[in-house]
Amino acid sequence: MATQSKMLTFEEFASLLTIGNTRASDSPPVIPAEHSARLIALGYVADLADRLRMTTPGRHGMAAGISNAVAAPGAALTRYPAGHPELEKSPGNYGF
Is position 95 within any domain? Predict the structure, then answer.
């Protein structure tokens, strides 16, 4: 089985924010099916009674990604800013 990167694109992160900012009493958020499938597979979101709900790892990821939320569309988001020493150790292996 291929390893799945935990890095999210700008659009996937926006979908995560949409889910996180939706109250249980609101209508379910509408995000692309491929985003919901990937967020569920990564453990950031759970499908409970046909509603997408954010998990604790998803909340941690959302908090870690806030500083990177201004990345260009299509760019992967990580917890470290550009030039951080941790990125030099093993580029691409740091998600939330």
Answer: no
pLDDT in tens, 22-69: 888 888 889 999 999 999 999 999 999 889 999 988 888 777 765 444
Q: Which two tokens stand for residue 30?
A: 């509408």
User: Which residue range forms the structural domain that includes residue 77?
Assistant: 8-89
Write out the H or E segment, with its range, that includes residue 69.
none
Within a domain: 94: no
* pTM beyond 0.85, yes or no: no
Burial class (CB in 10 A: 0-12, 13-18, 19+), 27: exposed
Count of the separate structural domains present in the chain: 1
